[in-house]
Structure formats: C-alpha cells, structure tokens
C-alpha cells in the first residue's frame, strides 16, 4: 500500500527550505538542516525530492511560474505598458509584505552563482518577459534596440531588488506601498524608454 502524502509536512519542508536558503545561502542550506527545521526525517524529505538541488529548483521554478502567470494576467487586463509594470510591482510588494522570506529567497537565488537553474527553468523565464518586451517596443514605450537580457536586468530585477532591500531594512523599515510600486515603475520606465 502506498504511503499517503502529508501536505502539512510538505508545506513545512518548503517553508523550511526557503528560510534556510535565506539565512544560510544556497550552499549553506543542507538537507539535514532543512529536514530538522521542518521537523521531518531526512528520509521523508528524500522520498519527495531526490536532492537539495531538486527541492530548491522546484521551489524557485514554482515562484517563476507564479510570476509568469501574473505577467500574463496583468497583460490581458491592461493595455498600457507602464500600467503592466506598475501592477506587477504592486503585486510583488504585496507578496513581500505578506511573506518577506519568499522575496528574499527569490532575490538570493537570482544572485547566488552556486545555484544553477535547470535547462527547463532557463527556457521558461524569458518566455513571458519576451512577450512583455515585445508589447513595450510595439507601443513605443520601450527602446526598440533593447535586448531581452537588457530588459530583464531592469525589469523585474530592479523591482525584486527594491523589495529585498526593504525586507533587509537597509533604507527603511516601512512596509512596501503602492507609492513604492509607482516610484519603482517610474525608475524602470526611465531605464527602458527610447
């Protein structure tokens, strides 16, 4: 008889992984430390994920998919490129206020050279942003000569880095606001315009 999956244990594993990566870095977070924090046996974790790499890639990939879906939904309901950027920033900042560790997890992995994304993940990331770049270039709001790599180094990178600096309380201890989303949108738009 197959063993049942305890969803609460899996959620604890996911949250423990995020917290361990945030506090110890990708290299410092071990399967044992994640399992201990999640209050499960190492073997239970290995039953669902063959390695730390697979677990972290799964979590990072699910966040990337969530961002992609968010971009598609915002693009469907908004015509203006800067409104799309603003709505995305607003949603990211609401998520950051609700779950600061999640924002830090994404930012840390974006900047951790020891964490290697799977080939599938590397292919999925540009997909949604390519459509967004194309829309901005067609509307004349984005420099037509901007490459996808240049575009993503501005958006969403600046938006996520801004959220991360707020979580770290580097410049402010205030929660992220709609006004912050507007300021970062204006910053992104200045960098992207022709």
Automatic annotation (TrEMBL):
PANTHER family: ACREF/ENVCD OPERON REPRESSOR-RELATED, ACREF_ENVCD OPERON REPRESSOR-RELATED. Keywords: DNA-binding. Signal peptide: none annotated. Residues 30-49 bind DNA. The keyword Transmembrane helix does not apply. Residues 7-67 form the HTH tetR-type domain. This is HTH tetR-type domain-containing protein.
């Amino acid at each position: 008889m197959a063993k049942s999956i305890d969803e609460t244990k899996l959620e604890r594993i996911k949250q423990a992984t995020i917290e361990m990566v945030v506090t110890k870095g990708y290299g410092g977070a071990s399967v044992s430390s994640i399992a201990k924090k999640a209050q499960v046996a190492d073997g239970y974790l290995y039953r669902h994920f063959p390695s730390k790499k697979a677990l972290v890639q799964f979590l990072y990939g699910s966040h990337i998919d969530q961002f992609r879906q968010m971009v598609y939904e915002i693009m469907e309901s908004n015509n203006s490129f800067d409104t799309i950027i603003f709505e995305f920033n607003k949603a990211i900042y609401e998520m950051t206020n609700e779950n600061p560790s999640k924002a830090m997890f994404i930012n840390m992995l974006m900047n951790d050279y020891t964490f290697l994304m799977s080939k599938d993940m590397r292919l999925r990331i540009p997909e949604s942003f390519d459509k967004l770049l194309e829309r901005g270039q067609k509307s004349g709001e984005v420099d037509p000569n901007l490459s996808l790599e240049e575009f993503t180094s501005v958006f969403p990178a600046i938006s996520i880095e801004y959220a991360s600096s707020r979580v770290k309380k580097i410049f402010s201890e205030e929660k992220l606001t709609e006004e912050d989303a507007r300021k970062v949108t204006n910053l992104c738009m200045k960098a992207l315009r022709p």
